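4.2 Preliminary Data

To establish feasibility before requesting continued support, the project team ran the inverse folding procedure on a target of 154 residues. The structure was first converted into the token representation described in Section 3, and no sequence information of any kind was made available to the design step. The complete token record follows.
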């Protein structure tokens, strides 16, 4: 019998059959790595975007606005990563009555300097309340002072 030159040899046929499972394994491994990378990316990116969106909404929209009058008893800068000014306002409605303390946050240095200049005098603090701020990095209280003015004492 003579070998037909158009027929592939048995060795070539076996090599071709061995290459196919390697290609399938490589494709399925690539798909698995792709899905794991996508899952990891989703597990990190999605919460980060959600946190940033929630923070932006909480700090942009104001729940309430108002003004409180009294004497600033304390104002101190707190924080290493994102420093804020935290203060305490003593409100006395009737002389001799127990004072009510109101805690507030100041985010800007210019307003903090203005409050420090009026310490010891009766002041009115304009504030905005932002509920749901997700971290204390932006302030320890939901009340953010936006302005200060000195009030004439009777």
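Position-by-position output of the design step:
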């Amino acid at each position: 019998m003579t070998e037909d030159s158009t027929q592939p040899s048995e060795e070539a046929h076996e090599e071709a059959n061995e290459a196919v499972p390697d290609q399938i394994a490589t494709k399925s491994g690539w798909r698995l790595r792709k899905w794991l990378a996508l899952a990891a990316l989703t597990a990190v990116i999605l919460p980060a975007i959600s946190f940033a969106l929630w923070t932006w909404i909480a700090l942009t929209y104001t729940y309430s606005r108002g003004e409180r009058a009294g004497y600033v008893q304390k104002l101190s800068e707190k924080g290493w990563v994102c420093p804020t000014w935290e203060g305490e306002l003593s409100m006395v409605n009737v002389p001799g009555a127990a004072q009510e303390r109101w805690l507030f946050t100041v985010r800007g240095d210019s307003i903090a300097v203005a409050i420090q200049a009026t310490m010891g005098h009766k002041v009115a603090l304009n504030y905005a309340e932002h509920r749901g701020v997700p971290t204390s990095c932006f302030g320890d209280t939901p009340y953010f002072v936006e302005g200060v003015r000195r009030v004439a004492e009777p």
